[in-house]
Amino acid sequence: MINRLKMTGILSAAALVLVGCGTGGSSESSVSEEGITVVTTFYPMYDFAKNVVGDNGEVSVLLDAGQESHGYEPTPQDIAAITEADVFVYNSDEMETWVPSVLESIESSDVIVVEAAENIALFELEEDTATEEEHSDEEGEDAHSVDPHVWLDPVYAQAEVEAILAGVVEADEANQESYEANAAAFKGKLADLDAAYQSAFEVAENRTFVVQHAAFGYIARRYDLTEVAVSDVSSDAEPNPAKLAELQQFMIDNQITTVYYSDSASSKTAETLAEGAGASLEVLSPLEGITEEDQEAGKDYLSVMEENLSALKKVIQ
Questions:
Q1: 253, 277 in Cβ contact below 8 A?
Q2: pLDDT digits 0-9 by tens, 183-206
Q3: Fold identical between 8-27+34-194 and 203-312?
Q4: Could you tell me if 108 and 13 are in contact, meaning their C-beta atoms sit under 8 angstroms apart?
């Protein structure tokens, strides 16, 4: 049921630079004197891996902020970077649906592949008929049958860090103690983040929040909240007018005065809903990307998750 994108042209071009490459792991470390090289798909995987690697090597990310993870098409240069890395980290086949095809194309590479969410049971999605968009068997069933946004749950984020740690240590056992210390320190911060969310919502009476994009189901489940979403996990799905009117009335009836929208997608639908319900707009970031400018200003996974907490506390109280 893995959704494999048709990438024949891309892979053929990549073959020119990838003679004799693929997935697998080498029993002997091939880490250079410059340190370990880790390639990641999108921002949360980058930030998690960077916190594990520390000063022991270089961590890079393929997708820039604003690029769609689901339908991304890697360039030959991207595939070469994956092949030449010591470790390649991605979230899951359900999130980066293009990854399985890439891995099939590089069957003799020594790169260690880490699917960070591999041991996390992804939540299955209920069938949603609220959108006008009809997903084909090729595009929709696999991509939208489960919710891939596990990194937004601070507890599951710790599990992803553990998976990344295992892959990095396999590639570079010589620096195992350093990696383990780095991972432990970062997991401690994630545990503190989890505690902050638990404390904020523990005695809240209003536990329902309305979002444009259904990316926050893991937060809702973890902290016993209810996410009401305009669209499903596909951020570009368009709601039908009847569903939008129903949500507006729901907000009015339940005195919900805020609509959350993603900083990585258009806010048009959220604006329409908020206007009809007399509500305000707030950003709730799915953390699929942070611009280089924001990173240079000090933003990272932890700080944005703290911003999300502050935004949610305006409704969950």
A1: no
A2: 999 999 999 999 999 999 999 999
A3: yes
A4: no
* pTM for this predicted structure: 0.85
Q: How far is CA 52 from CA 24, 122, 293, in A?
A: 21, 24, 23
Q: Would you tell me which CATH number, out of the four given (3.40.640.10, 3.40.50.2300, 3.40.50.1980, 3.30.565.10), belongs to the domain 203-312?
A: 3.40.50.1980
Listed in sequence order, the residues at least 6 apart from 17 whose beta carbon sits closer than 8 Å to its beta carbon are 76, 79, 80
Question: Helix, strand or coil for residue 227?
Answer: strand
Calpha distance 296→291 (Å, rounded): 9
Counting residues of the chain whose pLDDT is more than 90, the rounded percentage is 70
Q: Is the pLDDT of residue 168 over 90?
A: yes
- For 160, the token pair is 């992803």
Distance (Å, rounded) from C-alpha 88 to C-alpha 64? 17
Return d(Cα 14, Cα 193) in angstroms, integer.
41
Q: How far apart are CA 142 and CA 100, in angstroms?
A: 13
* C-alpha R_g of the chain: 20
What is the CATH code of the structural domain delimited by 8-27+34-194? 3.40.50.1980
What number of H helices and E strands is found in the chain? 12, 8
The SS3 of residue 90 is: strand
